[in-house]
UniProtKB/TrEMBL annotation:
InterPro entries: G_CP_dom, GTP-bd, GTP-bd_ribosome_bgen_YqeH, Mito_lipid_metab_GTPase, P-loop_NTPase. GO terms for molecular function: GTP binding. This is GTP-binding protein YqeH. Pfam families: MMR_HSR1 (PF01926). SUPFAM superfamilies: P-loop containing nucleoside triphosphate hydrolases. PANTHER family: GENETIC INTERACTOR OF PROHIBITINS 3, MITOCHONDRIAL. Residues 61-224 form the CP-type G domain. NCBIfam families: GTPase_YqeH.
Amino acid sequence: MMEELMYCEGCGAEIQTKEKTKSGFVPRSALDSEHIICQRCFRLKHYNEVQDVEYSDDDYLRMINKISDTNSLVVKIVDIFDFNGSFISGFQRLTGNNPIILIGNKVDLLPKSTNKSKLIHWMKKTASEFGLTVQDVFLASAEKGLGFDIIEKEIEERRNGKDVYVVGCTNVGKSTFINQLINRSSGVKNAITTSYFPGTTLGFIQIPLDRKSNMYDTPGVVNRRQLVHYVSDKDLKVITPKKEIKPKVYQLQDKQTLFFGGFARFDFEKGMKQSFVCYLSND
Ligand SMILES: Nc1nc2c(ncn2[C@@H]2O[C@H](COP(=O)(O)OP(=O)(O)OP(=O)(O)O)[C@@H](O)[C@H]2O)c(=O)[nH]1
Ligand SMILES: [Mg+2]
């Protein structure tokens, strides 16, 4: 008899009971539980420890590329705090001719004084310059639930009975976004595993929208130019902002340098003594 394939509810990896160090592992005894969560998700959730996986960047691209064969609505999420790093040009090739709405997530990190309409306008312009045709742009905080009244309504109207795929670069908050939607419709919290490590979601996670259609969480596309891939787990925690970023002003003389921890450096090469405004993580 063929065993039915099962997938981890937290990350979408195929469940297996044979190889402890591979994704989707659960001990055989755990197969009877109602909600099956793999060992990696369990560790991430309870100990904030991440286990390496056997997938390559291309494996994720191939998974996302399957969306081009569907007739669906694509919700593309970018991290508004790192728009360029999390945008990924050439994305449309992966999702085919499906209509796209663009969501700038983590808006809670921006200073309250940010002009939101200007930001949306800039996002539309930049998306088009990067060659991405989007139906519309919205701002959200998946963590705080900001912007969801409009987003929920827009997704429902625009999907027109079709499936919805939530896509984007790693760590932009796709799973947090879907958890927010699940929480709003059913009261269930943190259904999908999220973490500040890139590469948390490993496969498609299906969430029923109605009897005929589903929303899918997807693995993040990896952009190796993003610094998150090169810092230690400990440093990643320190540099990831959790609260609204605030300006700090530094006065520099000609030839002085600002060091941002051991992470980045700003050289003032030439000019009169003047102030520089820096927006930094403020936790
Ligand atoms: N400040 C802030 N942080 C957020 C928000 N949404 C998500 N995050 C954080 O961003 C990190 C990544 O969130 P995930 O939901 O795991 O991101 P993902 O896009 O699913 O990542 P992968 O599965 O790795 O592709 C976590 O540390 C979240 O807490 C938000 O609206 N505001
Ligand atoms: Mg995810």
